UniProtKB/TrEMBL annotation:
<dbReference type="InterPro" id="IPR035911">
    <property type="entry name" value="MurE/MurF_N"/>
</dbReference>
<dbReference type="InterPro" id="IPR051046">
    <property type="entry name" value="MurCDEF_CellWall_CoF430Synth"/>
</dbReference>
<feature type="domain" description="Mur ligase N-terminal catalytic">
    <location>
        <begin position="27"/>
        <end position="74"/>
    </location>
</feature>
<comment type="pathway">
    <text>Cell wall biogenesis; peptidoglycan biosynthesis.</text>
</comment>
<dbReference type="InterPro" id="IPR036615">
    <property type="entry name" value="Mur_ligase_C_dom_sf"/>
</dbReference>
<dbReference type="InterPro" id="IPR013221">
    <property type="entry name" value="Mur_ligase_cen"/>
</dbReference>
<dbReference type="Pfam" id="PF02875">
    <property type="entry name" value="Mur_ligase_C"/>
</dbReference>
<dbReference type="InterPro" id="IPR000713">
    <property type="entry name" value="Mur_ligase_N"/>
</dbReference>
<keyword id="KW-0067">ATP-binding</keyword>
<keyword id="KW-0573">Peptidoglycan synthesis</keyword>
<feature type="domain" description="Mur ligase central">
    <location>
        <begin position="111"/>
        <end position="297"/>
    </location>
</feature>
<keyword id="KW-0547">Nucleotide-binding</keyword>
<protein>
    <recommendedName>
        <fullName>UDP-N-acetylmuramoyl-tripeptide--D-alanyl-D-alanine ligase</fullName>
        <ecNumber>6.3.2.10</ecNumber>
    </recommendedName>
</protein>
<dbReference type="InterPro" id="IPR004101">
    <property type="entry name" value="Mur_ligase_C"/>
</dbReference>
<keyword id="KW-0131">Cell cycle</keyword>
<feature type="binding site">
    <location>
        <begin position="113"/>
        <end position="119"/>
    </location>
    <ligand>
        <name>ATP</name>
    </ligand>
</feature>
<feature type="domain" description="Mur ligase C-terminal">
    <location>
        <begin position="319"/>
        <end position="445"/>
    </location>
</feature>
Length: 457
């Protein structure tokens, strides 16, 4: 992590006040949360519409913070404390991280996409860690605040940083990638998330492709070759960068062979090796995510046997294809971290094709930020459910009701249940599960459909 004296910090960013009496004081790391402050960290407060972090500066220093930034237009800075007054604390954080990044001899893998960013980040980190010292974005620190904090957490001895880059509007990834300066970028896919803000999948693709704007000379672009929006735009992209594709079809540089799906994960081979790989994560879509991570590992000369070992150790963040046990012996796939039509369709496909269960139940909730066609997206998801392979569908929420309407086109009405209250949903669901049942639960994050998972345990 960053370790600098206040004098050195003042040489990295513009500081407005006299810090001579604290010049030799050293900070180690940075934080924006006084609840998690650690000894020696630089505390960075933000001035918001409803709250002002400057109120907690003195408390942060009492808790052990080494120093704090202070925004110039906030009155009464406690100058008797180690305070660095800056024009804007957010810009101060960003510029400090930019300066620190420029000092580091670290290679960066940048990851973006509509779905699978965090999963791909975790997989890529595991594979590269077989040969290198690797750090990754922790949690959801993937935006204009989080990514600078992640960079400031990097150790000087870190060889590769795997950085997730998220967005909600155009221009955000451009800023992040120019800050991180990746040597390799991965674009997982283009889905419907952020349609409400960006208006079309074409606009989403353009926003995700901003990640190449910060790519170093002779870098590597890894992208889903099965996605026409990416393929067409990148085919016309002329630079010194190398382009490699992953996907289901043989037209890609790397593609899977002989996928065997079990309830403990997927076994498969690839076109580039005779080694058989096991990924302890459910879903063909996650095999595709793994392919992009494998391509990054190949770029950094990680041998296939090491890649195999790294994949076998993959563990995803909670509520992403998490396998749990219900109190009636049923298996539960908790995929409630987030949802879009693309990711929900992949989860439905997974459940439909999963062997070994006599009773397969979908529990689906609202998918948010889909714009004016949100009701149609939900109806189409319901209509796409394979009635031969799915035994019952439970939905939750206003938009979930449109999934139920679509599902009734392919399943008998008595097998489709729509709720706007979780408690009766859980009670009815319990009547349909036993030790030969598997239940998949998925919805957007704010719907908190993990409550249904808890109700079954």
């Amino acid at each position: 992590m960053i370790r600098k004296t206040l004098k050195e910090i003042a040489e990295m960013i513009k500081v407005e006040n006299d810090i001579s009496s604290f010049a030799d004081l050293q900070i180690a790391g940075a934080s924006i949360d006084t609840r998690k402050i650690e000894k020696g960290q630089l505390f960075i407060p933000f001035k918001g519409q409803n709250s002002d972090g400057h109120r907690f500066v003195e408390d942060a220093i009492k808790k052990g913070a080494g120093a704090a930034l202070w925004q110039k237009d906030v009155p009464n800075p406690p100058l008797h404390l180690p305070i660095l007054v800056v024009e804007d604390t957010l810009i101060g954080l960003q510029e400090l991280s930019r300066s620190y990044r420029n000092e580091l001899n670290v290679k960066v893998v940048g990851i973006t996409g509509s779905n699978g960013k965090t999963t791909t980040k975790d997989m890529t980190t595991n594979l590269l860690a077989q040969r290198y010292k690797v750090q990754k974005t922790e949690g959801n620190y993937n935006n204009h605040m989080g990514l600078p904090l992640t960079i400031l957490s990097l150790e000087e001895t870190t060889e590769i940083a795997v950085l997730e880059m998220g967005m909600s509007s155009k221009g955000e990834i451009d800023f992040l990638t120019r800050l991180a300066r990746p040597e390799v970028v991965i674009i997982t896919n283009i889905g419907e998330a952020h349609l409400q803000d960006l208006g079309s999948k074409e606009a989403i693709a353009e926003a995700k492709l901003e990640i190449i704007n910060g790519l170093t000379d002779d870098g590597l672009i890894i992208y889903l070759g099965d996605e026409p929006l990416l393929h067409n735009k990148l085919e016309a992209y002329i630079s010194s960068a190398t382009k490699k594709t992953f996907g289901r079809t043989r037209l890609n540089d790397i593609y899977p062979l002989d996928i065997i799906q079990e309830d403990s994960g997927s076994t498969y081979k690839i076109n580039l090796s005779d080694v058989e790989f096991f990924l302890p994560v459910l879903g063909t879509h996650n095999v595709l995510n793994a392919l992009s991570a494998m391509m990054a590992a190949i770029h950094y000369n990680v041998p296939f046997e090491d890649i195999k070992a790294g994949l076998a150790k993959v563990r995803l963040t909670n509520m992403r294809m998490e396998i749990l046990q219900g109190k009636h012996g049923e298996k539960i796939i908790n995929d409630a971290y987030n949802a879009s039509p693309t990711s929900t369709q992949a989860s439905i496909e997974l459940l439909a094709n999963l062997p070994g269960y006599k009773n397969k139940i979908l529990v689906l909730g609202d998918m948010l930020e889909l714009g004016p066609d949100e009701e149609k997206y939900h109806f189409d998801i319901g209509k796409s459910i394979c009635g031969e392979n799915i035994d019952a569908v439970f939905t939750f929420g206003r938009l979930g009701a449109f999934i139920a309407d679509g599902a009734k086109q392919v399943l008998p009405a008595e097998k489709v249940f729509a709720f706007d209250d979780k408690e009766p949903l859980i009670n009815e669901l319990k009547n349909h599960v036993d030790d030969e049942t598997i239940v998949l639960v998925k919805a957007s994050r704010s719907i908190k459909l993990e409550d249904v998972v808890s109700g079954l345990q």
